[in-house]
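> forwarded from #structure-qc
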């Protein structure tokens, strides 16, 4: 239980990325060249985008995960941005002679994004600090699904301590993945839910996965809202907020961060999902990936119909 008046502390686990974003009229065809109308250099990565959202929505955030060599300009750039957002970076592990991930992202006028990314394979060999250090005073853990190799044991200890573990899933999971059963909440993107379950229908996929894990299960579907299973195994839906999307990069991550914060604040599932939907919609209305995450007052205004 979070003491009254003290914001909850969320531990985010992931791999930060340096994003180069290009606004284009259309993604170039294979072998062609085209000009971009705008270039921005931002920090990104699933858990980092979520961490930025949590901080802007009023939560306290600590970040853990691997980052490249301290001599790199990419890692220095990301750390400066994290400090500006008020994110605790004391638990980031610097890895000598390893490259911090970099991505190139093309964003079309519709807001749809196409990207390519390089992640140094050595990043997955990271050893995180001890659980006692990381979990102290944490009210929830939010982790990228791709970090299972180095985060599952920590998440298992968090669950043993009664701390919720929210997993943001943006790629298919193996059915033997430790996070699949360790998590208390699994937030899939629609395509990844279907691919993981091997069923081409969101609702049926969630029901198939429910036979494999005791976790809360949901699938986000962009403008079509979120489908999820309630505590008696029935499908429910949370509508998306209508918005003119200009940049969908990081929208799912902002959703995950807002949902985790909502749970840590004591919100019920329906309220936390609606809170997350509002935050994600506002993010899509602005350029900048996760750096377009909204402030708390903006989300509250949207929820109250004042926007």
């Amino acid at each position: 239980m979070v003491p009254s008046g003290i914001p909850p502390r969320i531990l985010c686990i992931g791999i930060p990325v340096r994003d180069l974003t290009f606004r284009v009229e259309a993604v170039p065809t294979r072998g062609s060249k085209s000009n971009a109308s705008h270039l921005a250099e931002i920090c990104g990565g699933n858990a980092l985008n979520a961490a930025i959202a949590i901080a802007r929505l009023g939560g306290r955030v600590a970040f853990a995960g691997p980052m490249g060599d301290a001599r790199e300009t990419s890692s220095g750039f990301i750390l400066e941005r994290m400090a500006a957002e008020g994110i605790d970076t004391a638990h980031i592990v610097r890895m000598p002679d390893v490259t911090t991930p970099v991505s190139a992202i093309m964003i079309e006028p519709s807001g749809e994004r196409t990207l390519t990314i390089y992640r140094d394979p050595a990043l997955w060999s990271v050893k995180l600090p001890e659980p006692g250090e990381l979990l102290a005073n944490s009210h929830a853990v939010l982790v990228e699904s791709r970090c299972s190799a180095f985060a599952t044991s920590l998440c298992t200890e968090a669950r043993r301590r009664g701390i919720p573990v929210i997993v943001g899933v943006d790629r298919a999971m193996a059915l033997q993945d430790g996070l699949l059963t360790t998590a208390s909440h699994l937030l899939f993107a629609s395509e990844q839910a279907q691919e993981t379950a091997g069923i081409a229908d969101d609702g049926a996929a969630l029901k198939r996965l429910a036979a494999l894990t005791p976790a809360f299960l949901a699938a986000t579907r962009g403008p079509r809202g979120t489908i999820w299973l309630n505590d008696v195994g029935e499908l429910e839906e949370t509508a998306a907020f209508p918005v003119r999307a200009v940049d969908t990069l990081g929208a799912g991550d902002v959703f995950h961060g807002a949902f985790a914060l909502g749970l840590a604040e004591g919100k019920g599932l329906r309220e936390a999902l609606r809170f997350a939907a509002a935050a994600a919609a506002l993010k899509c209305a602005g350029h900048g990936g996760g750096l377009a995450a909204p402030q708390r007052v903006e989300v509250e205004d949207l929820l109250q119909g004042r926007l």
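QC bot note: Residues 269-284 form the longest helix (16 residues). The chain has a mean pLDDT of 95.
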